[in-house]
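Dear colleagues,

I hope this message finds you well. In preparation for our joint manuscript, I am sending the Flagellar motor protein (Marinomonas sargassi) sequence together with its predicted structure, so that both groups work from identical material. I would be grateful if you could confirm receipt.
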Amino acid sequence: MDLITLAGLVIAFSAVFLANWLGGGEVVLLLNLPSAIIVIAGSIGATLIQSNIQESIRALSLLKWSLIPPVYDFNSARAIINNLAQKVRRTSLLSLESDVHSFGTPFSSRALQMLIDGADPTLLEHRLHDDANRLYDKRMKSVSFLEAIGGYAPTLGIMGSVLGLIQAMANLNSPEALGHGIAVAFVSTLYGQGFANLVVFPIANKLSGYVDKELLYHQLLIDGMCGIATGKHPSRLELELDSYE
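The corresponding structure tokens are as follows:
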């Protein structure tokens, strides 16, 4: 589990509550369920309108990476590729049948199976690049889905504040109730800005970094598979792949 994400969220929200407390504000004023509903539920609803069910499901699936990030071990992948290259030089491509799942990912398994089936190196490279780019595009659409939520949140916060002010204006004859109502109304704006800039955008940026790293990892696999397919010496192949990290 990525404890940095949890630690960052705790620090960010603690800073807001601490600043409010040091300024003499009441903590209870920051806890407003209607504001949270209109900002969070409203932002998600608006994003769903512009998306489809597949994109929504993929985005929720990708969201788990913020707490349980994927592991891309470049050193281990280079070692496996080197072993495969040496095995092919000693025997043949067919000897790799037992190593199809050695990397543990669907992409690598497809790449190895195509290599074993004797695909032309040029066609193999183009096909794997296409597969990697399609997967990258799908991942980035999920990131864009989350960024859209963050984009709508501040606007929904302003809408919540307007609704709160409308309700506060109903208490013009009671200055005390009016003041409290106005204070609560602006909590929605705070929720909108906080939800977008303390939660959604940081998580989306983190996920974007993981997606970029996945693409780089796939590029390592592609170069490795194509190197084996063209019969490169394991030492030369290892040297060419050494720059990936």
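For the figure legend, we might mention the following. The chain has nine helices and no strands. The chain has one domain: 33-241.

With kind regards,
E.M.
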